[in-house]
Design brief:
Blueprint (H helix, E strand, L loop, with lengths): L1 E4 L5 E5 L2 E5 L17 E9 L4 E4 L5 E16 L5 E4 L3 E5 L7 E18 L8 E5 L10 E5 L18 E2 L5 E7 L4 E5 L4 E14 L2 E4 L3 E5 L3 E18 L1
Parallel strand pairs: 11-12
Antiparallel strand pairs: 1-17, 2-3, 3-4, 4-9, 5-9, 6-7, 6-8, 6-9, 8-10, 11-13, 13-18, 14-18, 15-16, 15-17, 15-18
Length: 242
Protein backbone atom coordinates (compact mmCIF):
# COMPACT_ATOMS: atom_id res chain seq x y z
CA UNK A 1 0.00 0.00 0.00
CA UNK A 2 1.20 3.52 -0.77
CA UNK A 3 0.00 6.79 0.74
CA UNK A 4 1.09 10.02 -0.90
CA UNK A 5 1.73 13.16 1.14
CA UNK A 6 1.65 16.27 -1.05
CA UNK A 7 3.97 19.15 -0.26
CA UNK A 8 1.12 21.59 0.30
CA UNK A 9 -0.37 19.40 3.06
CA UNK A 10 2.70 19.45 5.32
CA UNK A 11 2.34 20.98 8.76
CA UNK A 12 4.26 23.91 10.22
CA UNK A 13 5.93 23.76 13.62
CA UNK A 14 7.78 26.46 15.52
CA UNK A 15 10.96 25.37 17.28
CA UNK A 16 13.71 27.63 18.67
CA UNK A 17 12.66 30.48 16.41
CA UNK A 18 12.46 28.39 13.22
CA UNK A 19 9.33 27.62 11.24
CA UNK A 20 9.76 24.00 10.18
CA UNK A 21 7.75 22.17 7.55
CA UNK A 22 6.79 18.84 9.10
CA UNK A 23 5.69 15.48 7.76
CA UNK A 24 4.75 14.30 11.26
CA UNK A 25 3.59 15.87 14.52
CA UNK A 26 6.34 17.98 16.07
CA UNK A 27 6.44 20.75 18.69
CA UNK A 28 3.28 22.85 18.26
CA UNK A 29 2.19 21.01 15.08
CA UNK A 30 -0.13 18.21 16.17
CA UNK A 31 -1.89 16.01 13.63
CA UNK A 32 -3.41 12.68 14.73
CA UNK A 33 -3.40 11.52 11.11
CA UNK A 34 0.39 11.96 10.85
CA UNK A 35 2.11 10.90 14.06
CA UNK A 36 4.98 8.84 12.64
CA UNK A 37 5.81 6.21 10.05
CA UNK A 38 7.03 3.08 11.78
CA UNK A 39 10.22 3.93 13.67
CA UNK A 40 10.58 7.20 11.71
CA UNK A 41 9.35 9.68 14.30
CA UNK A 42 10.19 13.08 12.76
CA UNK A 43 10.85 14.39 9.26
CA UNK A 44 11.32 18.16 9.18
CA UNK A 45 12.45 20.66 6.56
CA UNK A 46 14.12 23.81 7.82
CA UNK A 47 16.11 26.85 6.81
CA UNK A 48 18.61 28.82 8.93
CA UNK A 49 19.84 32.31 8.16
CA UNK A 50 23.53 33.19 7.88
CA UNK A 51 25.29 32.69 11.21
CA UNK A 52 22.08 31.69 12.99
CA UNK A 53 21.76 28.64 15.25
CA UNK A 54 19.01 26.07 15.70
CA UNK A 55 19.13 24.51 19.15
CA UNK A 56 17.34 21.53 20.67
CA UNK A 57 17.25 20.70 24.37
CA UNK A 58 17.73 17.33 26.07
CA UNK A 59 17.05 14.26 23.93
CA UNK A 60 17.53 10.52 24.41
CA UNK A 61 17.07 7.24 22.53
CA UNK A 62 16.84 8.86 19.12
CA UNK A 63 19.18 9.28 16.15
CA UNK A 64 18.87 12.74 14.58
CA UNK A 65 20.20 12.71 11.02
CA UNK A 66 20.50 16.10 9.32
CA UNK A 67 21.05 16.21 5.55
CA UNK A 68 22.21 19.59 4.27
CA UNK A 69 20.38 20.52 1.11
CA UNK A 70 22.12 23.87 0.49
CA UNK A 71 24.64 26.06 2.27
CA UNK A 72 26.59 24.72 5.23
CA UNK A 73 26.15 23.87 8.91
CA UNK A 74 28.26 23.17 11.95
CA UNK A 75 26.60 20.45 14.00
CA UNK A 76 27.45 20.04 17.68
CA UNK A 77 26.26 17.78 20.46
CA UNK A 78 26.74 18.93 24.04
CA UNK A 79 30.25 18.03 25.13
CA UNK A 80 31.52 17.53 21.56
CA UNK A 81 33.41 19.78 19.16
CA UNK A 82 31.46 21.36 16.28
CA UNK A 83 31.66 19.42 13.02
CA UNK A 84 31.22 21.19 9.65
CA UNK A 85 28.81 19.81 7.07
CA UNK A 86 28.59 21.11 3.51
CA UNK A 87 25.72 20.72 1.04
CA UNK A 88 24.99 17.05 0.40
CA UNK A 89 26.65 15.96 3.62
CA UNK A 90 25.06 14.53 6.76
CA UNK A 91 25.40 15.10 10.49
CA UNK A 92 24.33 12.38 12.92
CA UNK A 93 23.52 13.15 16.55
CA UNK A 94 23.04 9.77 18.20
CA UNK A 95 21.59 10.78 21.58
CA UNK A 96 21.93 7.36 23.22
CA UNK A 97 21.31 7.37 26.96
CA UNK A 98 20.74 11.11 26.87
CA UNK A 99 22.42 14.34 25.81
CA UNK A 100 21.88 17.84 27.19
CA UNK A 101 21.41 19.45 23.79
CA UNK A 102 22.24 19.57 20.09
CA UNK A 103 22.66 22.61 17.87
CA UNK A 104 23.33 23.47 14.26
CA UNK A 105 24.90 26.78 13.23
CA UNK A 106 24.62 27.99 9.63
CA UNK A 107 27.55 29.28 7.61
CA UNK A 108 27.89 32.61 5.83
CA UNK A 109 25.30 31.70 3.19
CA UNK A 110 22.80 30.18 5.59
CA UNK A 111 21.56 26.61 5.17
CA UNK A 112 18.53 24.56 4.29
CA UNK A 113 18.25 21.06 5.65
CA UNK A 114 16.09 17.96 5.98
CA UNK A 115 16.12 16.28 9.38
CA UNK A 116 15.13 12.71 10.25
CA UNK A 117 14.54 11.43 13.79
CA UNK A 118 14.81 7.65 14.06
CA UNK A 119 13.84 5.83 17.27
CA UNK A 120 16.83 3.89 18.59
CA UNK A 121 16.73 0.11 18.85
CA UNK A 122 20.00 -0.09 20.79
CA UNK A 123 19.42 1.51 24.19
CA UNK A 124 21.74 3.25 26.65
CA UNK A 125 24.64 3.93 24.29
CA UNK A 126 27.05 6.80 24.84
CA UNK A 127 25.91 9.91 22.94
CA UNK A 128 28.02 10.47 19.84
CA UNK A 129 28.07 12.44 16.61
CA UNK A 130 29.37 11.70 13.13
CA UNK A 131 29.49 13.54 9.83
CA UNK A 132 29.98 12.56 6.21
CA UNK A 133 30.81 14.75 3.25
CA UNK A 134 28.69 14.72 0.11
CA UNK A 135 29.11 11.53 -1.85
CA UNK A 136 30.60 11.68 -5.34
CA UNK A 137 28.13 11.35 -8.20
CA UNK A 138 27.14 7.74 -8.72
CA UNK A 139 25.15 5.86 -11.33
CA UNK A 140 21.77 7.25 -10.29
CA UNK A 141 21.05 4.40 -7.89
CA UNK A 142 20.39 4.57 -4.16
CA UNK A 143 23.46 5.15 -1.98
CA UNK A 144 23.36 4.72 1.80
CA UNK A 145 23.94 7.82 3.91
CA UNK A 146 23.14 6.23 7.29
CA UNK A 147 22.58 2.68 8.49
CA UNK A 148 22.07 0.73 11.69
CA UNK A 149 23.06 -2.57 10.06
CA UNK A 150 26.70 -3.62 10.65
CA UNK A 151 26.91 -5.33 7.28
CA UNK A 152 26.60 -1.92 5.62
CA UNK A 153 29.84 -0.67 7.22
CA UNK A 154 32.68 -3.19 6.91
CA UNK A 155 35.22 -0.69 8.27
CA UNK A 156 34.71 0.29 11.91
CA UNK A 157 37.93 2.10 12.77
CA UNK A 158 39.90 5.12 11.64
CA UNK A 159 38.80 7.92 9.35
CA UNK A 160 36.04 6.88 6.99
CA UNK A 161 37.17 7.54 3.44
CA UNK A 162 35.14 4.96 1.54
CA UNK A 163 31.71 6.56 1.63
CA UNK A 164 30.47 4.23 4.38
CA UNK A 165 27.24 5.43 6.00
CA UNK A 166 27.10 6.98 9.46
CA UNK A 167 26.32 4.33 12.07
CA UNK A 168 22.81 4.49 13.56
CA UNK A 169 21.50 3.07 16.82
CA UNK A 170 18.25 2.50 14.94
CA UNK A 171 17.81 -0.55 12.73
CA UNK A 172 17.15 1.74 9.81
CA UNK A 173 18.66 3.01 6.60
CA UNK A 174 18.69 6.43 4.94
CA UNK A 175 19.50 6.41 1.24
CA UNK A 176 20.03 9.08 -1.44
CA UNK A 177 19.60 8.90 -5.20
CA UNK A 178 20.28 11.52 -7.88
CA UNK A 179 18.40 10.15 -10.89
CA UNK A 180 18.73 11.56 -14.43
CA UNK A 181 15.49 12.10 -16.36
CA UNK A 182 14.22 8.89 -17.97
CA UNK A 183 16.22 6.63 -15.69
CA UNK A 184 15.31 4.76 -12.54
CA UNK A 185 16.60 3.67 -9.15
CA UNK A 186 15.63 0.40 -7.47
CA UNK A 187 15.64 -0.47 -3.78
CA UNK A 188 14.93 -3.74 -2.01
CA UNK A 189 14.15 -4.52 1.60
CA UNK A 190 12.53 -7.30 3.66
CA UNK A 191 9.07 -7.84 5.07
CA UNK A 192 8.07 -5.91 8.17
CA UNK A 193 9.62 -2.67 6.96
CA UNK A 194 8.17 0.72 6.05
CA UNK A 195 9.61 2.87 3.28
CA UNK A 196 9.23 6.64 3.17
CA UNK A 197 10.30 8.44 -0.02
CA UNK A 198 10.86 12.21 -0.17
CA UNK A 199 11.27 14.06 -3.47
CA UNK A 200 13.91 16.71 -2.81
CA UNK A 201 13.86 18.04 -6.36
CA UNK A 202 12.47 17.13 -9.78
CA UNK A 203 9.59 14.81 -10.61
CA UNK A 204 9.36 11.04 -10.17
CA UNK A 205 6.89 8.25 -10.68
CA UNK A 206 6.26 5.23 -8.49
CA UNK A 207 4.05 2.90 -10.46
CA UNK A 208 1.29 5.05 -11.95
CA UNK A 209 1.63 7.82 -9.37
CA UNK A 210 3.51 11.06 -10.04
CA UNK A 211 5.31 12.91 -7.26
CA UNK A 212 6.77 16.40 -7.60
CA UNK A 213 9.30 18.32 -5.56
CA UNK A 214 8.35 18.28 -1.88
CA UNK A 215 5.95 15.35 -2.17
CA UNK A 216 6.46 12.12 -0.24
CA UNK A 217 5.19 8.54 -0.37
CA UNK A 218 4.79 6.10 2.53
CA UNK A 219 4.91 2.44 1.47
CA UNK A 220 3.89 -0.46 3.70
CA UNK A 221 4.11 -4.13 2.85
CA UNK A 222 6.47 -3.46 -0.07
CA UNK A 223 9.81 -5.23 -0.40
CA UNK A 224 10.78 -3.78 -3.78
CA UNK A 225 10.64 -0.18 -4.95
CA UNK A 226 11.46 1.36 -8.32
CA UNK A 227 11.57 5.13 -8.72
CA UNK A 228 11.55 6.59 -12.24
CA UNK A 229 12.70 10.18 -12.82
CA UNK A 230 10.33 12.11 -15.10
CA UNK A 231 12.70 15.06 -14.73
CA UNK A 232 16.17 15.06 -13.15
CA UNK A 233 15.41 14.19 -9.55
CA UNK A 234 16.98 13.91 -6.12
CA UNK A 235 15.28 11.50 -3.75
CA UNK A 236 15.79 10.54 -0.11
CA UNK A 237 14.47 7.21 1.17
CA UNK A 238 14.08 5.95 4.74
CA UNK A 239 13.77 2.22 5.47
CA UNK A 240 12.53 1.56 9.02
CA UNK A 241 10.89 -1.17 11.06
CA UNK A 242 7.10 -0.97 10.78
Amino acid sequence: MMDIRRADTLGTAHSDGLALRCHFAFADYQDPAHIHDGRLRVLNLGQIGAGATYHLGPEASVDIVTWVRAGSLRGRMDGCDPQPVEAGGVHLASTGGGCAGVDWCAGADGASFIQFWLLADIKGTTPAQETRTALPGGDGGFVLLASGFPEDDPEESGVVADGAPVALSARARLAHAAIPAGEGAAYGTCMGRDLYVVVVSGTISIGEDILDQGDAAALTGATDLTVIARRDAVVLLVDVAA
